[in-house]
Amino acid sequence: MKEDRQLRTPFFTKLKEYGQINATPFDVPGHKLGRIENDLLDYIGLETYMLDSNAPMGLDTLSRPTGVIREAEKLMAEACLADKAYFLTNGTTVGIISMIMATCKAKEKIILPRNVHKSVISALILSGAMPIFIRPEIDLDLGIANGVSYESVAEAIKKHPDAKAIFIINPTYFGVTSDIERITKLAHDNGMLVLVDEAHGAQFYFNERMPFTAMEASADISASSFHKTAGSFTQSSVILTKGKRIDHVRLRSTINMLQSTSPSALLLASLDVARKTMYFQGAKRIDRLLKMAEDARSILRTIPGIKVIDKDYILSKGGFDFDETKVVIKVSDLGITGFEVYKIMRKKYNIQLELAESHIILAVLTIGTTKEDLDNLVFAFKSLSKKYYKLRNKLPKIKFDYQFPETYTRPRDAYHAPKISVELHEAYDEISAESIMIYPPGIPLVIPGEIITQEVIDDIDFYVKKGSVVHSDLDNGYVKIIDKEHWMYWEGEENDL
Ligand SMILES: Cc1ncc(COP(=O)(O)O)c(C=O)c1O
Predict the structure, then answer these.
(1) Index of the ligand 1 atom closest to the CA of residue 235
(2) Model pTM?
(3) Ligand 1 pocket, 472 CB below 6 A?
């Protein structure tokens, strides 16, 4: 039964009222609700500017909400079966950093899969926590990292009974989930907290056919990008919590350290209305979406040279569940890489995919996806197949092994250590002082404090040549390593950071 109070949009309603009363604005923002001239205003219109207020009386304060933001957050918590919700205006990036900093102190251990988003590495540096990485399930046919098995978490817990928390991704970028319910139970039985990255799983909260949510699994805390899959504006996310293990005073002050004191009202309003839409229409519209997706998949399956990744496939590879709003297609049997398909799709068919890897592409579907969009995708794949399948080029070599390097010291120690920069090939056997990621999907090849192996160097070379964007601090072929000669830690002197 739906609750009528979910029809309310407390923050959005108040914001609209404020836009309409035409108050004399001696506050910021400086555009004074659109009383300026500029090209953006001409393009998007005065109405949008009138909603971009900062913190006028009556609109509450995000850092310590007691009014309409608090009400809107309560409705969000109820809609997601959480005990508490915190609105975020700097994405799940800030959600992840906040939840790790609020739960793990310097030198405390956190168990986490290697295929974490780069915000987790930032959180390790900021908190000083010690990462205990577990190897995710690897699909060598597709060249991607999936979820973590229950057994691998159990083994890590056994080896590190003093760990403070377990970090789970629900789902991965490609829609694969882990057995979050059992893992949560095991973690709690061992006195550990469960932190969940639901950047790609906001829609799970609104349809029973979707995989399990962190809150259903009784995980302690999750961060969810409403903007990615639940219809709010880019950067708007939410932290959800359940149970009594989270210290809310510490969480609140950590979020406040990281977020702007001038949060965008447009982002907050977009969360408020997205929650209402998903609460009332999510179930039906996701059902419709899943049907459209299945229809599209069944045609895509008949196209020579491409392979549709579906739930059966994911389960056969050891995955726990699969988010069927993600269309994952293996394209490398056409003789071209996912990277090439990504470019061709945009240039030739005006289709913007979410991401590409060497063997696959990912199209993200939401309740905003139409049948026509899916028809366009199917049409584009039919033409690609006609053009490339017959040529049967040599298949690109599979490149993905994912042996992550050994840790020498905590990411925070490495971050604070003296550094020098060297050319990549000179970095062999040195200790990295930076993260080197391929983006998307933001998987770290090496993080601060790890030893740079030959394999890391070869992987970076490979991704650069394939045209993937490699993110490092220095974009000129150099990497930052620890200057061991001037590093006290190298002499065995620990620091207490
Ligand atoms: C797995 C994962 N976690 C976290 C994030 C960060 O989310 P946001 O973009 O909302 O900051 C991303 C972003 O792509 C992601 O892919």
Answers:
(1) 10
(2) 0.95
(3) no
